[in-house]
Amino acid sequence: CAVALDIDISRVQAILTDLSGETVLAREQFPTQGEDFPRVYERVCHAVDRLLAQMPASQYGLVGMGVAVHGVVDLSGLIRFIPRRGWRNVDLRSLLAERYQVPVSLDNDGNLAALAQQELISGTGECLQSLAMVNIGDSISVGLITNGELFRGFHGFANAIGHHTINFDEPVQCSCGKYGCWEQYCSNGAVIAYANTVLPQPISTLEELITLIRHQDPLARQVMDRFLTYLAVGLTNIIFIFDCQAIAISSELLSALPYYLPEVMRKMVLPITHVEKVVLSRLGKSGAILGAASQAVFQFFQDTAHAMEPGQ
User: Fold this and answer.
1) What residues contact residue 84 under an 8 Å CB cut-off, 6+ apart?
2) Backbone angles phi, psi at 75, to 5 degrees
3) Nearest to 135 by CA among 20, 289, 29
């Protein structure tokens, strides 16, 4: 079996999978709003321990762990910065490897969701060499696949596109320290915050906004139009920088209201280029954690194959 974790800005998910990386044998989930790293780490370990207590007997037992985090991760697997949590230079990978005595892979959620999306597309028989996977939640991250391989950049930060500037005149500072980041306009929290500046009654969840939009509330539709406009700006920038074959989007708002996707396409300004397709990912919120599970399983099979080579 393998364990996969998705450490989001306000919650943690943990799953136990078989070696397909897809069949979930057990699951844990808990909120972590405002908690510091020592407390989150303690609760993560308790959740993993509960999962392992449910692990069926097998020849290899726990073969590895995969971890998705919604922040900046370098090539060594070190968490360099999670703006919304205030975590800097956290070596969670080594802590888990030492505690559970198995290989641990740790990466940004965008990268792992991109790998899961690539695997999903490959399973249909389609050959996709260039993909941008956009994860929109409490934060925004993007996984980039080029020539069939994950593009990480020199330090490993190539997917921190949620913090590229789309409004230089923004007066409010982003959690990362910059101004006018994409995440300030299209993340779930940003959409709710803006909605509460225009709606007569405050909301606390996207579900409330979605209900208002479905009922054709004009102010809620104004909120949606602003989201679509800024989303289109960010997607256009990705295309001009990356020239990708396809973009897959994971967004709770768009998944609930998929008929707005053509409006995103209409708002995208591409005078000298185009993108083959823009689609909603069928993986939804599960992309990152399934990608983390797949990485743990892949590492196990790779290590096993290496051990069986002559001379090893």
Assistant:
1) 9, 70, 71, 138, 139, 175
2) -65, -20
3) 289
User: Shortest CA distance to 210 belongs to which of 229, 186, 191?
Assistant: 191
Per-residue CA distances from 168 to 159, 241, 247, 265, 304 (Å): 20, 18, 25, 23, 51
Neighbour tally for 64: CB within 10 Å = 24
Confidence of residue 311 (pLDDT cuts 50, 70, 90): low
Residue 147 CA to its chain's centroid (Å):
21
Q: What is the DSSP letter of 16?
A: E
Taking only the tens place, the pLDDT of each residue in 131-170 is 999 999 999 999 999 988 999 989 888 888 999 999 999 9
pLDDT tens-digit series, residues 36-56: 999 999 999 999 999 999 999
Residue 127 has pLDDT above 70, yes or no: yes
User: Taking the complete model, does pTM exceed 0.85, yes or no?
Assistant: yes
Distance CA 312, CA 309 (A): 6
Q: What is the CA radius of gyration of the chain?
A: 20
Percent of the chain with pLDDT over 90: 78
In terms of Cβ atoms closer than 10 Å to its own Cβ (0-12, 13-18, 19+), residue 72 is: buried
Helix, strand, coil % in the chain, rounded to nearest 5: 40, 25, 35
